[in-house]
Amino acid sequence: MIKPPNTMQAMVLMRHGGLEALEFHKDWPTPVATGSEVLIKVAACGLNNTDVNTRTGWYSKAVDEATTGGAYSEVDAEDPTWGGAPISLPLIQGADVVGTVVAVGPDADASLIGQRVMTDNWLRDWNDPLNKDATGYYGSECDGGFAQYTKADFRNVGVVESTLSDAELATFSCSYTTAEGMLTRAGVGADDRVLITGASGGVGSALIQLAKLRGATVIAMASEAKHQAVATLSPDAILPRSPSNLKAALKIATGHETVTVVADIAGGDYFPTLIDVLARGGRYTCSGAIAGPIVSLDLRTLYLRDLTFTGSTVIPPHIFTDVLKYLAQGALHPMLAATYPLSELHKAQQMFIDKKHTGSIVVIP
Description:
Layout: E1 7-13, E2 22-29, E3 37-46, H1 49-56, E4 96-104, E5 116-119, E6 122-123, E7 136-137, E8 149-153, E9 157-159, H2 166-169, H3 173-185, E10 193-196, H4 202-213, E11 217-221, H5 227-231, E12 237-239, H6 246-254, E13 259-264, H7 271-276, E14 278-286, H8 299-304, E15 308-311, H9 318-328, E16 336-341, H10 345-354, E17 360-364
Parallel strand pairs: 10-11, 10-13, 11-12, 13-14, 14-15, 16-17
Antiparallel strand pairs: 1-2, 3-4, 3-8, 3-17, 4-5, 5-9, 6-7
């Protein structure tokens, strides 16, 4: 086994701010696996909204606009991250790691050495793994994968059995576990008609595939320029991003004016229209607000139509292993939009922010 170098290349978040807050270092200290940790030589790492939102301070309650990727001047220093607490800076972000285990701590599973693994991004109290209050996120509450090496608790990695490339596999962990968590929390089954916003993005494309695996009828919403790419995932219908008459569009596409589930990652001004097409007893599940976090809701719609609303962030541990199982079965299709060298993370993140792509973007150390 080759000993890892003492230093490595890493893209490091030095402060909250614009892209300039991310600094590329060629001699950052290589982490050392201790205790129950494993050291991973990173082969690829995917980009996600959390990276941008944390860098810019968008999670702060002082911010009420859509995700733009620019720095926010009115940020509450006490709640600029997903968990509502400050993070420790400098920080190596990047959650969706795929790589090879090259070393283990004394309390880790030594059989993982040499295995290709994917990270499970939810940091847990492994004595109480269902405790949502005791969770953190990989690349947020600890260093992540925008580097040549990273470390993780051995219980936060899974061996990948797949013929897909490292870059393709780096599109899965965050997006697909987020999507599967949303569908699980909403109880989606074969009798459901599921309307998916932001269907061309990483989570949206995952929602299409995972809802189809459950046997549901899937209606995807995306900008018309992306319909051809979305169609490769075989949703039952594809609608524009925000039809002026959503009920009529649904009726034409599916024969129904309503859906039983809305899986939303957008929010914003269109939110009331989405709620209006939920059938009586319908469910709304949300894990994002890229179009804006502040929405309008008529509470009469909520209670008179017996609707159920669920937020979905922290997921139960089995979700990650379920996604690995689907990958091993060849049931999931990667949507890899582009790859960039780690040193060009600024360009990669700007492409991510511009939202002109379909699928996920990955950096290669």
